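Schema walkthrough. Field components (list of strings):
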Amino acid sequence: MKKKYSIFSLAKNALSGHKEWPKMWGSPEPREFYDVIIIGGGGHGLGTAYYLAKEHGLKNIAVIEKGWLGGGNTGRNTTIIRSNYLWDDSAHLYEHSLKLWENLSSELNYNVMFSQRGVMNLAHNEHDIKEIKRRVSANNLNGIDSFWLSKEEIQKKVPIMNTDNLRYPVLGASYQPRGGVARHDAIAWGFAMRADEMGVDIIQNCEAHQIRTKNGTIEGVETSKGFLRANKIGVVASGHTGVLAESAGIRLPLQSKPLQALVSEPIKPIIDTVVMSSAVHAYVSQSDKGELVIGAGTDSYNSFTQRGGFNIIEDTIRAMVELYPVFGKMKMLRQWGGIVDICPDASPIISKCDIEGLFFNCGWGTGGFKATPGSANVFAHTIAKNEPHQINSAFNLDRFASGRLVDEHGAAAVAH
Amino acid sequence: MLIINCPYCGPRDQSEFSNGGEAHVKRPDGSKEIGDREWGEYVFIRANPKGLFYERWVHTHGCRKWFNCVRDTSTDEILVTYKLDEKKPNLNNFKSVVKTPSGEPEVGSGNFTVEK
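Field assembly_structure (string):
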């Protein structure tokens, strides 16, 4: 049954003490065979299942997830959404996603709390200025809203920022007004609910152990709930994608590292936009609950510990306190790490591979959340049609042989 | 933060070191014969295991020497460090704590020191 959310359903359920809300998705036991199995129940994976069912009419789909839905990087990121990337290929991909975000709450009839409060990328030195202005121009050529802000304009937008009295003074910034933040859980839940309504099996607590192939064709996946046969498998397991690829004999150009974030105690509204700085490495926005959501960097070494090194937080907090002296005495509530899979060119892989029926959507590195609906949309196309959508054709695996990389180290914001 | 045992200087704080990625990567032979794909693999693809991993470190803010190391990437435990000209240790000498390929180790990440 289609679940509808409105002011009336809210009022009705308020009267019964919010105890009668229907379950958003079921928890079926896995069937023996699926047309498509998606490994990874985060935003990208659930979105892929949603678009496979909605736009490509596939019925027999499962999403298998090791833990709970959205418990991986979907629930661990800093929820920043923007599309101001340098190269045409990335700009088209992230803009495709941003356009889907803009309509997602009404499409899913579920509030993903997409708030277009603008995203600022600070410049701290001469090189930053040149690089960011170049990116602004490239964005404008691609029809993406992006412009240069002077120091005075930044001070007006974010009066608490210390622009002058610090080691790397703030000299200007790029600004994308359509950028912003969204609710991380909501995107996973919204996609899960609507996919479930279209008959997708969402199977939680089901860990993929090994992808089985035979004569270069996919057979299925060995899981903690037994062997599941499938015609096609899409792997969207972020940091663990490499581990699963290895089990199918595929080597991917990925390195897994912990990326950390932290939130402060909640305070009254003080910053109404998103401010990112890759030069001093601190980015911040304020959640609707009032917490500052702060993004830190990745560790220098490969690791699967969802924790990260303390020195990384120290660096970020140092930059935060310098940029916003007013936050100096705040307490931090929580800190965590998520395992991100980083590609050599800081761009994702949305591609088929040598094994027929095996597809990868990975390599999002430090910035996959913004791409969730767009990535899911083109990945579903790639799986359904056995060939990439025009938007993701550049993000194939062949680029590491041809050398046609999509180098986005500048726009990726988190230096890695 | 890790304590890394530099084979030349002894145990020091991680902030003195820089990580150099996978160790024992061999440049392919026959550079004229091999194709773009093999070159691509050599240039871009590195091992990324969950579990035991051979890797390189350099003591940047110390003796500035490179050395190799075996670390468990599921717990960050450094099992052994050794000089570049020493033979690489057999991974069978170490116990992997990862039970399933992408599962979590029993002892929470980074907590192996507490357990010991």
